[in-house]
Amino acid sequence: MSTVSSLTLRSALADPALRESLLASLAMLVLSGGLIFLVTWIWVQAQAMRRARAPEVDWLIVCGHVLDAGRPSAVYRARLERAADLAGRDAGLQLMLAGGGEPSEAAVGRDWLVAQHGLSPERIRLEEASTDTFENLRHARTLLPARARTGIVTSRFHIARVMVYARQLGMTAQPVPAEASWRPTVANLAAGLREAVFLCWFACGRFWARLARRRHLLERIR
Predict the structure, then answer these.
(1) Using CA atoms in the order 4, 5, 9, 10, what is the torsion angle rounded to 10 degrees?
(2) What pLDDT is attached to residue 2?
(3) Number of H helices and number of E strands within the chain?
(4) Do residues 137 and 171 make contact, with C-beta atoms less than 8 angstroms apart?
(5) Any idea what DSSP says for residue 113?
(6) 3-state class (DSSP) for residue 71
């Protein structure tokens, strides 16, 4: 199943497991006359537009985003700003920044929070081993204290996929949108379509793996 928003089609086709899940997903998409994608897109938009509630958490996982010339992108800054705002209100709140690379998205995010908001590095843990959203959460899951009340900070267009991944990994987490509300901008609409593609791929691939009892595929999402 696809777990990578930045994964190129070429690299996906080079991976036998992802190639199998992609073909299965395309077959289901054709057989449904595109209905599966439509339902998925509606779900992505519905989650993006949901009214946020005040998080009651001990830890915030902050999803990374591709860097802009080694600095946090506008999307990433919005996520970091939201985490900083909540951390400023609750002195006991701990942050886990997720995202690998060189330099890692997590490390760049920490440095930005320290420089821009004066947050203590002691409150920030880094998850730098991952290269995609699914790995972000899988690795973060192992770093969190037992029974920690957890929130996941990400962009509204990203919430649906993040929460599906979290549930797949057995995580009980609260979505914490970076933005106060969703706006119908071209960027947000395009991001919603992209998210629907990857979420549809994941869901269809998972369905195929369970239906056909493809253990090698199921192992990829545990």
Answers:
(1) -60
(2) 34
(3) 9, 5
(4) yes
(5) H
(6) strand
Cα separation, 61 vs 118, in Å, equals: 19
pLDDT at 82 over 70: yes
DSSP states of 135-204: HHHHHHHHHSPTT--EEEEE-GGGHHHHHHHHHHTT--EEEEESSSS----HHHHHHHHHHHHHHHHHHH
Reading the block at residue 9, the tokens are 């089609």
Give the 3-state secondary structure of residue 31. Answer: helix
- Architecture label for domain 59-177: 3-Layer(aba) Sandwich (3.40)
- Give the CA distances from residue 39 to residues 32, 33, 45, 115, in Å, rounded to whole numbers and listed in that order: 11, 12, 10, 42
CATH 3.40.50.620 intervals, the chain: 59-177
Report which of 47, 43, 210, 212 is spatially closest to residue 222, judged by C-alpha positions.
Answer: 210
For residues 112 and 128, give the distance between their C-alpha atoms in angstroms, rounded to a whole number: 16
pLDDT at 41: 97
CA-to-CA distance for 215 and 72, rounded, in angstroms?
A: 38
Question: How many of the other CB atoms lie within 10 Å of CB of 165?
Answer: 24
Alpha carbons within 13 A on the beta-carbon side of 47: 24
pLDDT in tens, 47-64: 999 998 888 999 999 999
